[in-house]
Write a structure and sequence with these properties.
Rossmann fold, seven-stranded mixed β-sheet, five-stranded parallel β-sheet, 17 strands, 12% strand
């Protein structure tokens, strides 16, 4: 959340606290919070809880939000009367959203799961806030379901932006879950999402389709008030990309890689045209012998509006050092700078570091707290190991030991040494090629650790079904691009993103590694035609052949990959949904494994529903008065 949004949220919530907490507890003569807290130490449980709640309310009204939240989160809410317990839940959930502390909101809204007596308005507002909190905690499916339930009960359009943000974060697997029991409201949202994803980056076409969708779905909250992200596209009318320069080497060590990427670009370009989408003119320019200034001069001379490439890491590093590029550029590799500072530069590639970060987040959401990790003892392994460690520690996890193993050494010796050095752990991170990875689970069995969960990157899977060879990997969870695990990712090949391109290219590729490069070319084309949108609208995403792609604040494209688990030697959807062990497993008090410190990017709005008679009147039609 940026600073301005954070400031608006804090101001809105503070105003709500001041105006919305009035009641029997806010008399003209106000007691000292410290005196109330001291008094509570001498009182019976029910009276003590009431005194502490009164102190928290007064602290919040005085602007001491952090202290108010601390007091409210630590009192025994079960000792309060039904009316006061509802007041406590509304207070703590507001304070939690103001502080971007999702777990405090979960703690407060557990009343919904406990069957507590609540006014209907309060119950709906608490359910909405729970959805916002789940978004903060990186649980988009549970977040979406909670907010849709609140919206179904009220018809309010206040949650629209928050629902849209979380819908766009759903994996294909999660979308299948949401679709399986969809009511009319949910079906409307899903059809709007599908419309956006099939637009092919043609903004004018998408806006026309949005208008038609609104006409056909007039009662739907999103028809009355479309998500702000979609309305913002109106400012991009007339920004269609009509010519793209593609900088790829035709000779040298990267020529064969470039050839496969080019094949993916050309295939997607051709088939988009066959499907009726507008397609830009493509100019392929050999980048193997020319410097960057010459390449950009030629691209400009040809009338390019967007550049795709270069591919060589050295050239991307050179671009990173520039203040501004002459044309919006999607580089096909990542530089080594800590942060990309060049204006107009986006970077995209098949980064294993992204996969390691995703593993760390998933394992934390699954409730794991202490990891053992195995990566090869080379530069690649060290980079991936560092990415895992940093992300894991960001989630609040501990590393027992990070081993840089010798791929040529005996697996049993490496695993035994890792376990000895790590001490008690509850999960393992593995970076290894299939021939190595297949030996790890049997070794864990031999070391009397058969139930230790193993999480791996895509390197553990060879890319084609081999149930006999991969049976030793049973139980291992891993990430992979949708095109290589269609059953696990989307329920079958026909549901794959850009299925027509998949069908053509998969028939040509005799090696899964080559199909990955072609898939990268497909997504590079789709990102290229969408660059104006990605530049103008933060949070823009592409549901692509190589994963769900979104741009970080510095323009680096991050991939969110679907998960699979080896079952009977085949990649299948994981038996346990992400975060299932954490969310819904109990109160927010202490059940905070997998906390993401607010980086789930939920649109926290202000936590109030007002349409259809909801809320306390602090919002009107979704805007602060």
């Amino acid at each position: 959340m940026n600073k301005s949004s954070r400031g608006l949220l804090a101001a809105a919530l503070l105003a709500l606290l001041v105006s919305g907490c009035a009641g029997p507890s806010m008399m003209s003569t106000e007691r000292s919070p410290q005196a109330l807290l001291g008094q509570a130490e001498q009182q019976a449980p029910a009276q003590a809880a009431d005194s502490r709640l009164e102190a928290a309310i007064i602290l919040a009204r005085r602007g001491e939000a952090a202290k108010a939240q601390e007091v409210a989160s630590q009192l025994d809410d079960t000792a309060l009367s039904a009316e006061r317990r509802q007041e406590w839940a509304l207070l703590l959930s507001r304070l939690g959203l103001e502080a971007e502390d999702g777990w405090s909101v979960i703690q407060a809204t557990d009343l919904l799961e406990a069957g507590a007596q609540l006014d209907q308005d309060a119950a709906n507002n608490l359910r909405y806030r729970r959805g916002l909190a789940l978004g903060l905690l990186g649980e988009p499916l549970a977040s979406t379901q909670a907010m849709l339930k609140a919206q179904a009960a009220t018809g309010s359009d206040v949650p629209n932006d928050a629902i849209w943000k979380q819908l766009n974060r759903l994996s294909a697997q999660e979308l299948m879950t949401l679709r399986s029991n969809a009511d009319e409201l949910t079906q409307g949202w899903l059809s709007l999402l599908e419309l956006q994803r099939q637009s092919g980056g043609d903004i004018d076409q998408l806006l026309g389709q949005l208008s038609n969708w609104r006409d056909a779905n007039r009662p739907h909250p999103a028809a009355r008030k479309p998500p702000a992200e979609l309305l913002a596209l109106r400012d991009l009318r007339g920004t269609r990309v009509e010519r793209i320069a593609i900088l790829l080497p035709e000779s040298g060590s990267l020529a064969s890689v470039a050839e496969r990427i080019r094949r993916g670009i050309e295939t997607r370009h051709e088939q988009a045209g066959q499907q009726g989408a507008f397609t830009p003119k493509l100019d392929f320019i050999d980048s193997s012998q020319q410097d960057l200034n010459t390449l950009y001069a030629e691209a400009t001379m040809r009338g390019a509006q967007v550049v795709i490439g270069p591919l060589a890491k050295s050239k991307v590093e050179e671009l990173e050092k520039r203040q501004r590029l002459p044309l919006p550029t999607l580089a096909l590799n990542y530089g080594t700078a800590e942060r990309n500072g060049a204006e107009n530069l986006f970077q995209y590639g098949l980064s294993v570091e992204d996969e390691a970060r995703q593993v760390a987040i998933r394992a934390a959401r699954d409730g794991h707290r202490r990891a053992a990790a195995m990566v090869p003892n080379n530069d690649w392994g060290r980079r991936v190991g560092t990415a895992f460690r940093e992300s894991w520690e960001d989630q609040g996890g501990d590393i027992g030991h990070l081993m840089h193993y010798d791929p040529e050494a005996l697996v049993n010796n490496s695993v035994k040494r890792l376990l000895d050095l790590s001490g008690p752990v509850d999960m393992m991170f593995l970076l290894g090629l299939p021939s190595y990875a297949r030996q790890v689970p049997p070794t864990l069995d031999y070391q009397k650790q058969p139930d230790l969960p193993v999480y791996a990157t895509s390197q553990a899977y060879e890319g084609r079904p081999q149930p006999r060879s991969d049976s030793d990997l049973n139980g291992v969870r891993f990430v992979e691009i949708p095109w290589l695990i269609p059953d696990a990712a989307v329920g079958g090949v026909e549901a794959l993103p850009f299925y027509a391109s998949y069908r053509t290219l998969s028939a040509e590729a005799d090696d899964p590694a080559l199909l990955k490069l072609m898939a990268m070319g497909v997504d590079a084309y789709e990102l290229g035609v969408r660059l104006p949108q990605f530049q103008a609208i933060s949070g823009s995403e592409l549901f692509g052949a190589t994963g769900t792609l979104r741009a970080a604040s510095d323009g680096r494209i991050q991939r969110q990959l679907p998960w699979a688990e080896f079952i009977d030697g085949l990649p299948q959807p994981p038996l346990e949904a992400e975060g299932q062990r954490v969310i819904g497993s109990g109160s927010g008090k202490g059940a905070q494994a997998g906390q993401t410190n607010g980086r789930g990017n939920a649109d926290t709005s202000d936590g109030e529903l007002t349409n259809s008679g909801l809320g306390d009147g602090d919002l009107s039609n979704g805007e602060l008065r």
